[in-house]
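Q: Please design a sequence for this.
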């Protein structure tokens, strides 16, 4: 589980969840709003994935920020910085003279501008490279992102149907199928689609796959809206983490188990999500 804290304009957002696509997009939007146009005065990173000189970034302007799946991207001239927070990463944006809220030993990326600074703590992946190389790799490795302008429902449907012998609860977490879907979204999407996570793709109707893909987009956008409005996502959680809860649709008990072979927390209503 991820404990992430983002501070923007002195508003702190606490996220006690694994970073998923909507969280990454929310970070990117807030970074863009706070830092676009900043001239970089200093860059520090503790990473082995630095493929261009950091000196080349000094004096350049932060052009924008975006996300693809769970990856947060900062665009600087013809370069880019990719951040993946995974389980323990977090991002803060400070006024220039503000003290850091966490020990310097946890800093994996620091970008100091003329007025503000961005600090990423405990981020497992910090990659600095040419913009085109990073984008090419992500587009090659990842499926369509429900929060991207390039989102394609048809591509997502095709990607799911490429794996007829896989369980739908397993394949929907594969980032090459749909980018940005994490375990919370996985549980909530399948519940709303009335699909049991143990069902193999081959046993799903075309309409069921279409419903899964459509709900993936709708729910990702709803999660993003809550995060941008600094709201807790608990009202959106119909099954996730409801260990002793009752189904909001039929009143049956919510079942919890660890789905194999991925060993991820899984919550279902066996009445609504029949095999």
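A: Design:
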């Amino acid at each position: 589980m991820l404990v992430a804290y983002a501070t923007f304009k002195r508003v702190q957002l606490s996220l006690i969840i694994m970073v998923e696509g909507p969280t990454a997009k929310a970070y990117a939007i807030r970074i863009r709003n706070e830092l676009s146009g900043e001239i970089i005065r200093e860059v520090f990173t503790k990473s082995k994935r630095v493929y261009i000189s950091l000196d080349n970034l000094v004096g350049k302007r932060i052009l924008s920020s975006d996300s693809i799946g769970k990856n947060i991207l900062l665009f600087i001239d013809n370069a880019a910085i990719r951040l993946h927070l995974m389980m323990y990463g977090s991002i803060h944006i400070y006024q220039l003279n503000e003290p850091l809220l966490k020990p310097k030993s946890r800093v994996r990326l620091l970008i100091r501008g003329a007025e503000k600074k961005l600090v990423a703590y405990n981020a497992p992946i910090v990659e600095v490279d040419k913009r085109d190389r990073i984008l090419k790799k992500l587009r090659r490795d990842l499926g369509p992102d429900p929060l991207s302008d390039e989102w394609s429902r048809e591509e997502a449907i095709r990607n799911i149907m490429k794996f007829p012998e896989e369980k739908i609860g397993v394949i929907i977490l594969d980032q090459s199928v749909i980018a940005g879907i994490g375990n919370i979204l996985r549980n909530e999407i399948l519940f709303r689609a009335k699909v049991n996570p143990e069902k193999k793709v081959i046993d799903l109707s075309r309409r069921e796959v279409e419903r899964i893909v459509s709900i993936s987009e709708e729910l990702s956008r709803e999660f993003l809206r809550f995060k941008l409005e600094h709201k807790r996502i608990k009202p959106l959680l119909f099954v996730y983490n409801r260990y002793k809860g009752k189904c909001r649709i039929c009143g049956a008990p919510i079942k919890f188990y660890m789905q194999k072979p991925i060993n991820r927390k899984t919550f279902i209503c066996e009445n609504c999500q029949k095999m």
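Q: Thanks. Anything notable?
A: The first strand starts at residue 3 and ends at 8. The domain at 153-268 is CATH 1.10.8.50 (Helicase, Ruva Protein; domain 3).
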